[in-house]
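Shape matters. As here.
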Amino acid sequence: MTAGSARPARRAGRVRPYSLTGGRTRSGHVLLVETFVASLESPDGRFDPAPGGAGTRMLPEIRAIIELCRRMRSVAEVSAMLKIPLGVVRVLLSDLADQGKIRVYGTGRGPGQPDRALLERVLSGLRRL
């Protein structure tokens, strides 16, 4: 091979967000930024793979979410800590909830009734960034 015909080495790039969700932008669960989620573990402390071959080939982003959620986290925390867009995290978390890998906890507020104090804390935190 000549130097001009050599193919450049492939660079490991970030996966485009839409490819993680299959192009989906909506989730089946109501996941607000302050909604808490936590991984569900088997009794021995390990995660049970999903039945079939798909569970053995879990995306690294999904594994990272499950690991991170061993402790209860908010949707916003998961997004920020993994540097994955919020909309993508919502879809992935919804999928994991449907698969029984995580549990979604309510925020304690009724629909359409945001907690003003919580919103002020979030706004204050965003301003500090």
Remarks:
- The first helix runs from residue 17 to 21.
- The beta strands are 36-39, 73-74, 102-105.
